[in-house]
Amino acid sequence: MRLFIDSDACPVKEEVIKVAVRHGLPVIMIGNRWLRGFDHPLIEQVVAAEGLDQADDRIVERIEAGDIVITGDVPLAARCLAKGARGIDHRGKIFDEGSIGMAKAVRDLMTHLRDTGQIEGGGPGGYQKQDRSRFLDGLERLVQTVKKTQ
Protein backbone atom coordinates (compact mmCIF):
# COMPACT_ATOMS: atom_id res chain seq x y z
CA MET A 1 0.00 0.00 0.00
CA ARG A 2 1.23 3.47 -0.96
CA LEU A 3 -0.27 6.89 -0.32
CA PHE A 4 -0.47 9.18 -3.35
CA ILE A 5 -0.96 12.89 -2.73
CA ASP A 6 -2.34 15.18 -5.42
CA SER A 7 0.02 17.73 -3.93
CA ASP A 8 -0.47 21.10 -5.62
CA ALA A 9 -3.48 22.22 -3.58
CA CYS A 10 -3.44 19.65 -0.78
CA PRO A 11 -3.83 21.25 2.68
CA VAL A 12 -3.13 18.00 4.57
CA LYS A 13 0.29 16.90 3.31
CA GLU A 14 1.80 16.98 6.80
CA GLU A 15 -1.08 14.94 8.23
CA VAL A 16 -0.66 12.33 5.49
CA ILE A 17 3.02 12.06 6.34
CA LYS A 18 2.26 11.57 10.05
CA VAL A 19 -0.07 8.66 9.24
CA ALA A 20 2.43 7.26 6.72
CA VAL A 21 5.29 7.31 9.23
CA ARG A 22 3.11 5.64 11.88
CA HIS A 23 2.32 2.80 9.46
CA GLY A 24 5.61 2.75 7.55
CA LEU A 25 3.88 3.54 4.25
CA PRO A 26 5.56 5.16 1.25
CA VAL A 27 4.18 8.52 0.14
CA ILE A 28 4.29 9.70 -3.46
CA MET A 29 3.60 13.42 -3.81
CA ILE A 30 2.80 14.34 -7.40
CA GLY A 31 2.25 17.91 -8.53
CA ASN A 32 3.39 20.56 -10.95
CA ARG A 33 6.14 21.90 -8.70
CA TRP A 34 8.73 20.79 -6.17
CA LEU A 35 7.74 21.39 -2.55
CA ARG A 36 10.39 22.24 0.02
CA GLY A 37 10.43 20.74 3.47
CA PHE A 38 9.34 17.23 2.59
CA ASP A 39 12.63 15.37 2.86
CA HIS A 40 11.96 11.99 4.43
CA PRO A 41 12.98 8.46 3.40
CA LEU A 42 9.32 7.47 2.93
CA ILE A 43 8.54 10.43 0.64
CA GLU A 44 9.05 10.56 -3.10
CA GLN A 45 8.25 13.77 -4.93
CA VAL A 46 7.37 13.71 -8.61
CA VAL A 47 7.13 16.92 -10.60
CA ALA A 48 4.77 16.53 -13.54
CA ALA A 49 4.97 18.57 -16.71
CA GLU A 50 3.01 21.81 -16.77
CA GLY A 51 -0.39 21.52 -18.31
CA LEU A 52 -3.94 20.47 -17.70
CA ASP A 53 -4.21 17.08 -15.94
CA GLN A 54 -0.48 16.30 -16.23
CA ALA A 55 -0.13 15.59 -12.49
CA ASP A 56 -3.40 13.63 -12.50
CA ASP A 57 -2.18 11.52 -15.42
CA ARG A 58 1.07 10.73 -13.58
CA ILE A 59 -0.87 9.62 -10.50
CA VAL A 60 -3.13 7.36 -12.57
CA GLU A 61 -0.12 5.88 -14.39
CA ARG A 62 1.53 4.85 -11.12
CA ILE A 63 -1.33 4.02 -8.76
CA GLU A 64 -2.27 0.38 -8.26
CA ALA A 65 -4.94 -1.65 -6.54
CA GLY A 66 -4.52 -1.35 -2.78
CA ASP A 67 -3.05 2.18 -2.94
CA ILE A 68 -4.79 5.28 -1.58
CA VAL A 69 -5.05 8.67 -3.30
CA ILE A 70 -5.54 11.87 -1.33
CA THR A 71 -7.29 14.39 -3.58
CA GLY A 72 -10.17 16.80 -3.79
CA ASP A 73 -10.40 16.15 -7.54
CA VAL A 74 -13.45 13.91 -8.07
CA PRO A 75 -12.58 12.90 -11.66
CA LEU A 76 -9.06 11.93 -10.54
CA ALA A 77 -10.50 9.91 -7.65
CA ALA A 78 -12.81 8.11 -10.11
CA ARG A 79 -9.88 7.25 -12.39
CA CYS A 80 -7.93 5.85 -9.42
CA LEU A 81 -10.90 3.82 -8.19
CA ALA A 82 -11.18 2.30 -11.66
CA LYS A 83 -7.68 0.90 -11.12
CA GLY A 84 -8.62 -0.66 -7.78
CA ALA A 85 -7.24 2.08 -5.54
CA ARG A 86 -9.13 3.86 -2.77
CA GLY A 87 -9.49 7.59 -2.19
CA ILE A 88 -10.15 10.27 0.38
CA ASP A 89 -10.56 14.02 0.09
CA HIS A 90 -8.99 16.68 2.31
CA ARG A 91 -12.03 16.80 4.57
CA GLY A 92 -12.10 13.07 5.24
CA LYS A 93 -14.75 12.04 2.69
CA ILE A 94 -14.00 8.53 1.48
CA PHE A 95 -14.27 7.87 -2.25
CA ASP A 96 -15.40 4.34 -3.02
CA GLU A 97 -17.57 2.59 -5.58
CA GLY A 98 -20.66 3.49 -3.59
CA SER A 99 -19.95 7.23 -3.32
CA ILE A 100 -18.01 8.23 -6.44
CA GLY A 101 -21.05 8.30 -8.74
CA MET A 102 -22.89 10.74 -6.50
CA ALA A 103 -19.74 12.85 -6.02
CA LYS A 104 -19.33 13.12 -9.82
CA ALA A 105 -23.00 14.01 -10.29
CA VAL A 106 -22.90 16.75 -7.64
CA ARG A 107 -19.68 18.14 -9.11
CA ASP A 108 -21.16 18.21 -12.62
CA LEU A 109 -24.39 19.83 -11.40
CA MET A 110 -22.55 22.57 -9.50
CA THR A 111 -20.31 23.25 -12.52
CA HIS A 112 -23.40 23.54 -14.73
CA LEU A 113 -25.14 25.89 -12.29
CA ARG A 114 -22.05 28.13 -12.07
CA ASP A 115 -21.53 28.09 -15.85
CA THR A 116 -25.13 29.10 -16.51
CA GLY A 117 -25.07 31.87 -13.88
CA GLN A 118 -27.66 30.24 -11.63
CA ILE A 119 -25.24 30.38 -8.70
CA GLU A 120 -22.12 32.43 -8.05
CA GLY A 121 -18.88 31.34 -6.48
CA GLY A 122 -18.88 27.81 -5.33
CA GLY A 123 -16.73 25.24 -3.73
CA PRO A 124 -16.55 24.36 -0.08
CA GLY A 125 -16.03 26.97 2.60
CA GLY A 126 -12.69 27.65 4.24
CA TYR A 127 -10.71 24.79 5.69
CA GLN A 128 -11.44 24.42 9.40
CA LYS A 129 -9.78 22.66 12.33
CA GLN A 130 -12.57 20.07 12.40
CA ASP A 131 -11.92 19.30 8.70
CA ARG A 132 -8.33 18.41 9.57
CA SER A 133 -9.52 16.20 12.42
CA ARG A 134 -12.08 14.44 10.17
CA PHE A 135 -9.38 13.90 7.56
CA LEU A 136 -6.95 12.33 10.04
CA ASP A 137 -9.67 10.04 11.38
CA GLY A 138 -10.84 9.11 7.88
CA LEU A 139 -7.34 8.38 6.59
CA GLU A 140 -6.50 6.26 9.61
CA ARG A 141 -9.71 4.23 9.17
CA LEU A 142 -9.07 3.85 5.43
CA VAL A 143 -5.51 2.66 5.97
CA GLN A 144 -6.74 0.13 8.53
CA THR A 145 -9.46 -1.08 6.12
CA VAL A 146 -7.04 -1.51 3.22
CA LYS A 147 -4.52 -3.32 5.47
CA LYS A 148 -7.21 -5.83 6.44
CA THR A 149 -7.95 -6.64 2.82
CA GLN A 150 -4.33 -7.21 1.81
Distance between the termini: 9 Å
Percentage of residues in helical conformation: 40-55%
| Strand content range | 5-15%
In total, the number of domains comes to 1
Structural class: alpha/beta
CATH topology: Rossmann fold
Tell me which CATH architecture applies here: 3-Layer(aba) Sandwich
Biggest β-sheet: strands ordered side by side in the sheet: 3-2-1-4-5-6
**H/E series:** EHEEHEHEEHH
Shape: globular
Number of strands: 6
Oligomer: single chain
**Radius of gyration using CA atoms only:** 15 Å
List segments where confidence is low: pLDDT < 50 over at least 5 consecutive residues: none
Q: What is the mean pLDDT? A: 88
What's the number of helices?
5
Query: Major sheet, described briefly?
Result: 6 strands, mixed
At the first level of CATH, the class is: Alpha Beta
Provide a compact summary of the structure.
The protein is of the alpha/beta class and 150 residues long. It has helices at 13-23, 54-62, 74-82, 100-115, 129-149; strands at 3-6, 27-31, 43-47, 68-70, 86-88, 94-95. Helix 3 (74-82) links the parallel strand 4 and strand 5 (86-88).
Plain-language structure description:
The protein has 150 residues and is an alpha/beta fold. The protein has a single domain (3-149), classed as Rossmann fold. It has 5 helices and 6 strands, in the order βαββαβαββαα. The protein has a 6-stranded mixed β-sheet with strand order 3-2-1-4-5-6, with helices on both faces. α3 (74-82) links the parallel β4 and β5 (86-88). α3 (74-82) runs antiparallel to α4 (100-115). The protein is globular. 29% of the residues are buried.
